[in-house]
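#dry-run=false #mode=assembly
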Amino acid sequence: MIAANATVFVVDDDAAMRDSIKNLIRSVGLRVELFASAQDFLRSERPDIPGCLVLDVRMPGLSGLDLQKRLHEAGVAIPIIFITGHGDIPMGVHAIKTGALEFLTKPFREQDLLDAIQQALDRDYAAREERKAMKALQQRFASLTLREREVMTRVVRGLLNKQIGAELGTSEITVKTHRHQVMEKMGANSLPELVRMADRLGNLLPKS
Amino acid sequence: LKMLASQAAISLENTRLYSDLQEREAKIRRLVDANIIGIFIWNLKGEIIEANEAFLEIVGYEREDFVSRQIGWLDLTPPELRELDERAIAELKATGIVQPFQREYFRVDGTRVPVLVGCALFKLGGTEGVAFVLDLREQKRGEEELRKAQADLAHVVRVMTLGELSASVAHEISQPIGAVVNNAGACLRWLAAQNLEEAKRSASLVVENGHRAGEILRRIRALSVKAPPQMDWLDVNATIGEVIAMTSSEVQRNHVSLRTELASDLPPVYGDRIQLQQVLFNLIINAIEAMSRAGEASREIKVNSQKVAEAALASSDSTLDYEAFDHVESTRVLVAVQDSGPGLDPMRVEHIFDAFYTTKPQGLGMGLAISRSIVEAHKGRIWASNTGQGSVFQFALPVRDGRSE
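#status=ok
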């Protein structure tokens, strides 16, 4: 499942290699943008669209690993597929450990690169959906009043309305109203659904 | 009585003289027969009157051949050395002796034997004299072996350098091969999508990248072959370009910026392309290593080529404006590899071309020694100096006229 505007960014200092990757990616109907160096990539203005990065490890100036680190520090979460002419296993292990999705040694099977790209785009798409959903959830949670949040915390702990009322010093009726508001505002259709939301919100919930 | 006495004195004296003479002759005979070196007595007619065993052994003839006057020293002289002999004879007539000089004699089997010969006339104005002949065969064999050992060593170093290089080469060759695979894969997909235009474009990229891979392989193969020098007319700038391509991944890996300043008016040089590549390769790798080891922040290598005059080179060790000296007859091609490293230790600069001299922890000390022997085999010279901002290694090769020597 790939969004129509998904773009593969390719950073490689070797022009022939770069062009061939572009040709390959275009042949499966994906968009591709080329960069001759890590610096060029950092300087570029990229729209916030689904994508992934195909990155050569060894380049003059900033190396691929340097770029990975910079992006990580800048909070840019883009899946990275490393490609390298040196079958350097420790380097590959390091790259994967620090979050790279794949590490391919040139010359690689072109299908391996395409598969990795597919996987990377899927992952980026999913991550974006996830971030979007999380943001929406947080917005919904932000619309709750303080008392509603206190009620929600206790509801998801499995307390009965009577027990919540006792803890908060209010009547059972009032708790019932708050509880209804919470379900409504959070868009939860059932108690289990609300519990899952609470799980995802984690620390945002007030301690009881 | 007085007369008798004087007669007796004279004969006594004669006897003494005679015994002196005998003694002296015995000494000379002893010298001749000791056979430490070849000795023969000759005359200006070209005859050999007498020869010792040592000389007979050198030329392989029997004493009888000379004594019977069937063979003379003229017969032993290769035709192209007649002129040398005539000069020697002129010197003999003028001064009575000829300083030892190297020459060859024909042996009885028609082969040639290298010798060192010195001659003296028995008396100035006379026609007879003696020649002392030292056999140089052993020595020449030694030189031959040395040359062979050097060639073997050069081969070893080439192969080793190749070993060191293989990582870089693997990187370099993986690029075009990877590009071939990608473009061919793309081509199949374009064909499946019936996009013939893109398919055609992809196929031509495959061909292009395949050629690039082939060219790299050719360069590697050329490096690994233990071949006799392949002398040919060379474009030095092209050779520089090839080596820069070979070293590019080392250059990048060490964050070195490499610039070239190549003269467009270079005459071709007659030489062995691979050997000169080896020299340039050594110089560039050395420069990279020198700067990396010293941890220099700014790492720059400048490779330049220019046409210079020989006279200017002989008098200078640093860059000069050579244009003023430019003459066609004495033109040389000068190649300089300059780095921004820590420079050379002035105390040791004269040893850097010696074999087994090295400043690198894992160095063999062969790179520059081999470079020097290659440059000298090309009748050129190589030298090093400090620039103030680093060191510069330069070599100058002669530009020859149409024919090889």
